[in-house]
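Reviewer comment 2.1 asked that we show a complete input and output for one of the modelled complexes. We chose the 1-O-alpha-D-glucopyranosyl-D-fructose case, as it is the one discussed in the main text.
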Amino acid sequence: MSDKRAWWKEAVIYQIYPRSFADSNGDGIGDLNGIIGKLDYVKKLGVDVIWLNPIYKSPNDDNGYDIADYRGIMDEFGTMEDFERLLKEAHARGLKIIMDLVVNHTSDENAWFVESRKSKDNPYHDFYIWKDPVDGHEPNNWESWFSGSAWQYDEKLGQYYLHCFSKKQPDLNWENPKVRDEVFDMMNWWCRKGIDGFRMDVISMISKDQSFPDGPLKDGLYGDLAPYVCNGPRVHEYLQEMNQRVLSKYDIMSVGEAAGVTLEQALHYANNEETELGMVFHFEHTDGCMQQDAIIGKWTKTPPRLPYLRSILNKWQTGLEGKAWGSLYWDNHDQPRAVSRFGNDSPKWRVRSAKMIATCLHFQKGTPYVYQGEEIGMTNMHFSSVEDCNDIEEKNAYRQYVTEQHMISSEDMLSCFDHVARDNARTPMQWNDGPEAGFTTGTPWFAVNPNYKEINAEAALKDPDSVFYYYQKLIALRHKLPIMVYGTFEPLLEDSDSIYAYRRHMDGKTITVACNWTDQKVPCSLFDELQGEELITNVDSHEKGFLLPYEARAVLS
Ligand code: TEU
Ligand code: CA
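Response of the prediction step:
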């Protein structure tokens, strides 16, 4: 075994989007006390760690990813005392908590930025990336991830500031050592409070190409900034510094959200010597699949295709082997719902296909992440108008591509939203079949998916065949069988259009996994002669020589 053992390699993480998880005081917004009230539910699933999306003070231009105060709790979510209680209650149940760390950018309402824009000689001016106009225009053609120019003009200073995301999210200037001092101080402060790690937002973007060149033209009016901001020249240097000054001092985990990361780059970020981060999230099987068939930008109506998806995931499985640690996920707060995208959310196949994709992922090598509601098979939402949407990414894209540039019809755009919009993941957690799905006693900040009468946690907990208990079993298996964590990965049937199959190997043992990604019965002889113990399956009985629609099976031999 070439991997050093670590608790975070053996752990399963549960992601909570606090705004939409549980509301304790009836104001329609999820909060920290709401989470405390659901810790026993999370514990019952069997996970080890909770990742909280940002809970810091924020004007919520991007739902908390625009931080105004790194050491304060968002008023709507509660107080620092509430947070400390949450940490204590979680720890008392053997659950760890990791925080979202958003340090590529801040809110424009952050005190650093308020100072920064006061004058060019303000000590904080250089905390952000300010440039003089070029020929009276933006310094270059970069398009923000959230549409429009990535540069915002400030009348008073006569300069532009860079914002890779919304204009209320100015990018920090990591070239400035004072910025790094402040960020590392803040991280140490949270670590001393006893948190168990960080999920680092777009951490691959903190170092920018200092020549700020124009990017290759995209479909619209702008150029692509990714080549100059993702995996930039000093990113590894900065992360090594962070590792030395913060991460290595505590027994914590770290996962970098690495927009634009390649396998080659991940071998540095998540190297087994742990000189940078514990692991990274890559986007090749999520955003990559969208872009493959996109109408414009990331917007698509085409479901991912198994051969492509499998080739990506297998490439990462084999490429990281023995060199770096990976993370496993189907969805999160930026992605559509897993069962709607990768499975089949029709009433006939929803439960079985949700279990199938879970099987396919959880037997792979890496640390699995479960996004709130995934464990009960929550599905995508339907958006009948852009007015139904909350997400700034959707609103800006609609304005730019539909309203201003007429590049796509409103109908097509809304249909793309139904498939891949981030808002699909952000509808309130469905707890029961009562009013507002039991999320709040008031009016929820964002509409509840109308299917909550059938799909909710209470119903799942009553049904021994539910998606919930299947996840519980997968998680328990991972805790019981080191081969699920540390075993090597061997791809199988790589030419199949319908089956995703592979083996894991360790200490003379093998786990064989096969998943049918279609709604048809397909021939499969993998298990015919195999003598072994069936670890898990999502069907009542097998048919020799075949896999039933969406059948999944894992056998230990
Ligand atoms: O997301 C980073 C990112 O790359 C997003 O553009 C994401 O891939 C995209 O929305 C999917 O289409 C992170 C956070 O997870 C996201 O919620 C924030 O909006 C963003 O950073 C800015 O902080
Ligand atoms: Ca509340």
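The chain has four domains: 13-105+179-387+424-474, 111-162, 388-420, 488-556. We note this here for comparison with the apo prediction described in Section 3.2.
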